[in-house]
Amino acid sequence: MKTLRIAGVPEHFNLPWHLCLEDGEFQAAGINLQWVDVPEGTGKLCQMLRSGETDITVILTEGIIRDIAAGNRSKIVQVYVQSPLIWGIHVAANSPYKTMADIEKGKVAISRYGSGSHLMAFVNAKEQGWNTSGLTFEIINTLDGAVEALTQGRADYFMWERFMTKPIVDRGIFRRIGDCPTPWPCFVIAVRNEALQTNGSAIGTVLDIINSKTASFKDILGINEILASRYGQKVEDINAWLTLTEWSQQKLDKATFDRVQEQLFELNIIEDKTTFESATE
Protein backbone atom coordinates (compact mmCIF):
# COMPACT_ATOMS: atom_id res chain seq x y z
CA MET A 1 0.00 0.00 0.00
CA LYS A 2 1.49 3.32 -1.12
CA THR A 3 0.90 6.33 1.15
CA LEU A 4 0.52 9.73 -0.51
CA ARG A 5 -0.40 13.03 1.14
CA ILE A 6 -2.63 15.56 -0.59
CA ALA A 7 -3.73 19.03 0.50
CA GLY A 8 -6.36 21.46 -0.75
CA VAL A 9 -8.81 24.12 0.33
CA PRO A 10 -11.99 23.04 2.17
CA GLU A 11 -14.25 24.19 -0.66
CA HIS A 12 -16.89 22.67 -2.90
CA PHE A 13 -14.49 22.27 -5.83
CA ASN A 14 -12.81 19.46 -3.90
CA LEU A 15 -15.85 17.34 -3.07
CA PRO A 16 -14.91 14.82 -5.82
CA TRP A 17 -11.77 13.94 -3.82
CA HIS A 18 -13.76 13.37 -0.65
CA LEU A 19 -16.30 11.18 -2.45
CA CYS A 20 -13.48 9.01 -3.82
CA LEU A 21 -11.96 8.75 -0.35
CA GLU A 22 -15.28 7.90 1.29
CA ASP A 23 -16.02 5.28 -1.36
CA GLY A 24 -12.60 3.66 -0.78
CA GLU A 25 -11.58 4.08 -4.42
CA PHE A 26 -7.95 4.92 -3.68
CA GLN A 27 -7.67 2.15 -1.09
CA ALA A 28 -9.02 -0.35 -3.62
CA ALA A 29 -6.18 0.67 -5.95
CA GLY A 30 -3.57 0.09 -3.24
CA ILE A 31 -3.11 3.76 -2.31
CA ASN A 32 -3.48 5.24 1.16
CA LEU A 33 -4.32 8.81 0.14
CA GLN A 34 -4.32 11.17 3.12
CA TRP A 35 -6.21 14.43 2.59
CA VAL A 36 -5.51 17.60 4.60
CA ASP A 37 -7.79 20.66 4.48
CA VAL A 38 -5.86 23.93 4.26
CA PRO A 39 -8.19 26.90 4.88
CA GLU A 40 -5.26 29.33 4.55
CA GLY A 41 -5.20 28.64 0.80
CA THR A 42 -2.57 28.81 -1.90
CA GLY A 43 0.30 30.45 -0.03
CA LYS A 44 0.20 27.78 2.66
CA LEU A 45 -0.14 25.01 0.05
CA CYS A 46 2.99 26.26 -1.72
CA GLN A 47 4.83 26.25 1.60
CA MET A 48 3.71 22.67 2.26
CA LEU A 49 5.06 21.50 -1.10
CA ARG A 50 8.37 23.23 -0.44
CA SER A 51 8.76 21.76 3.05
CA GLY A 52 7.68 18.25 2.04
CA GLU A 53 4.57 18.34 4.28
CA THR A 54 2.48 17.20 1.34
CA ASP A 55 3.12 15.33 -1.90
CA ILE A 56 0.19 16.63 -3.97
CA THR A 57 -1.85 19.84 -3.91
CA VAL A 58 -5.00 21.03 -5.59
CA ILE A 59 -3.99 24.64 -6.01
CA LEU A 60 -4.73 27.89 -7.82
CA THR A 61 -3.01 28.08 -11.19
CA GLU A 62 -1.50 31.54 -10.75
CA GLY A 63 -0.25 30.74 -7.25
CA ILE A 64 1.71 27.61 -8.13
CA ILE A 65 3.14 29.10 -11.34
CA ARG A 66 4.40 32.03 -9.28
CA ASP A 67 5.96 29.73 -6.70
CA ILE A 68 7.57 27.38 -9.22
CA ALA A 69 9.13 30.44 -10.87
CA ALA A 70 10.41 31.37 -7.40
CA GLY A 71 12.06 27.98 -6.88
CA ASN A 72 9.37 25.55 -5.69
CA ARG A 73 10.58 22.13 -6.88
CA SER A 74 7.18 20.87 -8.01
CA LYS A 75 5.40 20.27 -11.29
CA ILE A 76 1.89 20.91 -12.55
CA VAL A 77 0.60 17.50 -13.67
CA GLN A 78 -2.80 18.59 -14.99
CA VAL A 79 -5.63 21.10 -14.89
CA TYR A 80 -8.26 20.27 -12.25
CA VAL A 81 -10.93 22.93 -12.88
CA GLN A 82 -10.99 24.38 -16.40
CA SER A 83 -13.45 27.21 -15.74
CA PRO A 84 -12.40 30.54 -14.19
CA LEU A 85 -12.66 31.17 -10.47
CA ILE A 86 -15.10 33.98 -9.81
CA TRP A 87 -13.54 36.15 -7.13
CA GLY A 88 -16.13 38.20 -5.28
CA ILE A 89 -14.90 41.59 -4.08
CA HIS A 90 -16.29 42.16 -0.60
CA VAL A 91 -16.51 45.00 1.90
CA ALA A 92 -17.97 45.11 5.39
CA ALA A 93 -21.74 45.47 5.24
CA ASN A 94 -21.66 48.73 7.21
CA SER A 95 -18.70 50.24 5.33
CA PRO A 96 -19.12 53.44 3.28
CA TYR A 97 -17.78 51.75 0.12
CA LYS A 98 -20.40 51.28 -2.57
CA THR A 99 -18.48 50.96 -5.85
CA MET A 100 -15.16 49.67 -7.12
CA ALA A 101 -13.88 53.25 -7.43
CA ASP A 102 -14.39 53.71 -3.69
CA ILE A 103 -11.81 51.05 -2.79
CA GLU A 104 -9.01 52.08 -5.15
CA LYS A 105 -6.85 53.31 -2.25
CA GLY A 106 -8.19 50.75 0.24
CA LYS A 107 -6.18 48.17 2.16
CA VAL A 108 -6.69 44.63 0.86
CA ALA A 109 -7.24 41.70 3.23
CA ILE A 110 -5.23 38.69 2.01
CA SER A 111 -4.78 35.22 3.45
CA ARG A 112 -0.99 35.52 3.02
CA TYR A 113 1.55 36.77 0.50
CA GLY A 114 1.57 34.55 -2.58
CA SER A 115 -2.04 33.50 -2.03
CA GLY A 116 -4.78 33.84 -4.62
CA SER A 117 -6.33 36.71 -2.67
CA HIS A 118 -2.97 38.50 -2.90
CA LEU A 119 -2.25 37.80 -6.58
CA MET A 120 -5.79 38.51 -7.77
CA ALA A 121 -5.74 41.89 -6.04
CA PHE A 122 -3.06 42.87 -8.57
CA VAL A 123 -5.04 41.38 -11.48
CA ASN A 124 -8.16 43.26 -10.39
CA ALA A 125 -6.24 46.52 -9.90
CA LYS A 126 -4.79 46.24 -13.40
CA GLU A 127 -8.24 45.58 -14.89
CA GLN A 128 -9.59 48.63 -13.05
CA GLY A 129 -6.74 50.81 -14.32
CA TRP A 130 -5.36 51.44 -10.83
CA ASN A 131 -1.72 51.88 -9.86
CA THR A 132 -0.77 48.37 -8.75
CA SER A 133 2.33 49.61 -6.93
CA GLY A 134 0.07 51.45 -4.49
CA LEU A 135 -1.67 48.34 -3.15
CA THR A 136 -1.39 47.74 0.60
CA PHE A 137 -2.25 44.54 2.45
CA GLU A 138 -3.45 43.12 5.75
CA ILE A 139 -2.68 39.43 6.33
CA ILE A 140 -5.75 37.65 7.73
CA ASN A 141 -4.89 33.94 7.15
CA THR A 142 -8.45 32.59 6.80
CA LEU A 143 -12.00 33.56 5.88
CA ASP A 144 -12.80 34.03 9.58
CA GLY A 145 -9.81 36.34 9.79
CA ALA A 146 -11.19 38.38 6.89
CA VAL A 147 -14.53 38.78 8.65
CA GLU A 148 -12.72 40.10 11.71
CA ALA A 149 -10.44 42.45 9.75
CA LEU A 150 -13.20 44.00 7.65
CA THR A 151 -15.68 44.41 10.50
CA GLN A 152 -12.98 45.97 12.71
CA GLY A 153 -11.83 48.28 9.91
CA ARG A 154 -8.26 46.89 9.74
CA ALA A 155 -8.79 46.20 6.02
CA ASP A 156 -11.16 47.70 3.48
CA TYR A 157 -11.92 44.90 1.03
CA PHE A 158 -11.39 41.19 0.54
CA MET A 159 -11.38 38.96 -2.53
CA TRP A 160 -12.51 35.34 -2.16
CA GLU A 161 -14.44 32.78 -4.18
CA ARG A 162 -17.88 34.30 -4.68
CA PHE A 163 -20.05 31.32 -3.78
CA MET A 164 -18.10 30.23 -0.70
CA THR A 165 -18.37 33.79 0.60
CA LYS A 166 -22.07 34.26 -0.22
CA PRO A 167 -23.38 32.88 3.11
CA ILE A 168 -21.44 35.70 4.82
CA VAL A 169 -23.09 38.17 2.45
CA ASP A 170 -26.50 36.60 3.12
CA ARG A 171 -25.96 37.03 6.87
CA GLY A 172 -25.36 40.75 6.40
CA ILE A 173 -21.67 40.68 7.38
CA PHE A 174 -20.17 41.38 3.94
CA ARG A 175 -21.45 43.21 0.88
CA ARG A 176 -20.20 42.18 -2.55
CA ILE A 177 -19.48 45.19 -4.74
CA GLY A 178 -18.00 43.41 -7.76
CA ASP A 179 -16.54 40.27 -9.30
CA CYS A 180 -13.18 39.45 -10.87
CA PRO A 181 -13.02 36.14 -12.77
CA THR A 182 -9.59 34.63 -13.35
CA PRO A 183 -8.63 34.95 -17.03
CA TRP A 184 -7.40 31.32 -17.01
CA PRO A 185 -8.37 27.84 -15.67
CA CYS A 186 -8.52 28.24 -11.91
CA PHE A 187 -7.24 25.03 -10.28
CA VAL A 188 -4.43 22.65 -11.19
CA ILE A 189 -2.91 19.60 -9.52
CA ALA A 190 0.74 20.02 -8.55
CA VAL A 191 3.14 17.37 -7.22
CA ARG A 192 6.56 17.63 -5.58
CA ASN A 193 9.32 16.54 -7.97
CA GLU A 194 10.61 14.01 -5.44
CA ALA A 195 7.18 12.41 -5.11
CA LEU A 196 6.87 12.19 -8.89
CA GLN A 197 10.22 10.46 -9.12
CA THR A 198 9.57 7.93 -6.35
CA ASN A 199 5.82 7.35 -6.74
CA GLY A 200 5.07 8.29 -10.34
CA SER A 201 2.97 5.20 -11.05
CA ALA A 202 0.83 5.66 -7.92
CA ILE A 203 0.29 9.33 -8.71
CA GLY A 204 -0.84 8.34 -12.20
CA THR A 205 -3.40 6.00 -10.60
CA VAL A 206 -4.61 8.80 -8.32
CA LEU A 207 -5.14 11.03 -11.36
CA ASP A 208 -7.02 8.28 -13.21
CA ILE A 209 -9.40 7.83 -10.25
CA ILE A 210 -10.10 11.53 -9.68
CA ASN A 211 -10.50 12.18 -13.41
CA SER A 212 -13.10 9.44 -13.64
CA LYS A 213 -14.99 11.03 -10.74
CA THR A 214 -14.89 14.59 -12.04
CA ALA A 215 -15.94 13.51 -15.55
CA SER A 216 -19.27 12.27 -14.16
CA PHE A 217 -19.52 14.47 -11.04
CA LYS A 218 -22.44 16.61 -12.22
CA ASP A 219 -24.43 13.46 -13.04
CA ILE A 220 -24.42 12.18 -9.45
CA LEU A 221 -28.01 12.01 -8.22
CA GLY A 222 -28.74 14.87 -5.83
CA ILE A 223 -25.22 16.30 -6.05
CA ASN A 224 -26.55 19.85 -5.69
CA GLU A 225 -28.21 19.00 -2.37
CA ILE A 226 -25.10 17.14 -1.16
CA LEU A 227 -22.92 20.16 -1.95
CA ALA A 228 -25.36 22.59 -0.33
CA SER A 229 -25.52 20.52 2.86
CA ARG A 230 -21.78 19.97 3.20
CA TYR A 231 -20.70 23.52 2.46
CA GLY A 232 -23.51 25.53 4.09
CA GLN A 233 -24.89 26.82 0.80
CA LYS A 234 -28.35 27.42 -0.62
CA VAL A 235 -29.34 24.88 -3.29
CA GLU A 236 -30.10 27.68 -5.77
CA ASP A 237 -26.59 29.08 -5.31
CA ILE A 238 -25.05 25.64 -5.82
CA ASN A 239 -27.14 25.19 -8.98
CA ALA A 240 -25.76 28.49 -10.32
CA TRP A 241 -22.21 27.49 -9.35
CA LEU A 242 -22.50 24.10 -11.06
CA THR A 243 -23.57 25.72 -14.33
CA LEU A 244 -20.41 27.88 -14.24
CA THR A 245 -17.93 25.19 -13.18
CA GLU A 246 -16.20 22.71 -15.49
CA TRP A 247 -13.69 20.15 -14.23
CA SER A 248 -10.81 19.03 -16.44
CA GLN A 249 -8.96 15.80 -17.08
CA GLN A 250 -6.32 17.37 -19.35
CA LYS A 251 -2.77 18.62 -18.97
CA LEU A 252 -2.05 22.34 -18.80
CA ASP A 253 -1.20 23.65 -22.28
CA LYS A 254 1.78 25.88 -23.00
CA ALA A 255 -0.31 28.80 -24.27
CA THR A 256 -2.22 29.00 -20.98
CA PHE A 257 0.96 28.64 -18.93
CA ASP A 258 2.65 31.42 -20.90
CA ARG A 259 -0.39 33.69 -20.55
CA VAL A 260 -0.50 33.33 -16.77
CA GLN A 261 3.24 33.75 -16.31
CA GLU A 262 3.38 36.76 -18.61
CA GLN A 263 0.66 38.53 -16.64
CA LEU A 264 2.43 37.77 -13.34
CA PHE A 265 5.65 39.15 -14.83
CA GLU A 266 3.95 42.31 -16.13
CA LEU A 267 2.49 42.93 -12.66
CA ASN A 268 5.95 42.50 -11.07
CA ILE A 269 4.68 39.54 -9.05
CA ILE A 270 7.54 37.41 -10.39
CA GLU A 271 11.03 38.64 -11.19
CA ASP A 272 12.24 35.70 -13.27
CA LYS A 273 10.28 33.48 -15.62
CA THR A 274 10.54 29.72 -15.69
CA THR A 275 10.01 27.41 -18.66
CA PHE A 276 6.90 25.43 -19.46
CA GLU A 277 8.98 22.25 -19.61
CA SER A 278 10.43 22.71 -16.11
CA ALA A 279 7.05 23.63 -14.56
CA THR A 280 4.91 20.84 -15.99
CA GLU A 281 5.00 17.07 -16.21
- What number is the mean pLDDT? 95
Tell me the structural class.
alpha/beta
Count of individual helical segments: 12
Low-confidence stretches: none
CATH-derived topology of the largest domain: D-Maltodextrin-Binding Protein, domain 2
Write up what this structure looks like:
There is one protein chain. With 281 residues, this protein is an alpha/beta fold. It folds into 2 domains: 2-84 and 185-279, D-Maltodextrin-Binding Protein, domain 2 (3-Layer(aba) Sandwich), CATH 3.40.190; 86-181, D-Maltodextrin-Binding Protein, domain 2 (3-Layer(aba) Sandwich), CATH 3.40.190. 43% of the residues lie in helices and 22% in strands. The chain contains 12 helices and 10 strands. Strand 6, helix 5 and strand 7 form a beta-alpha-beta unit.
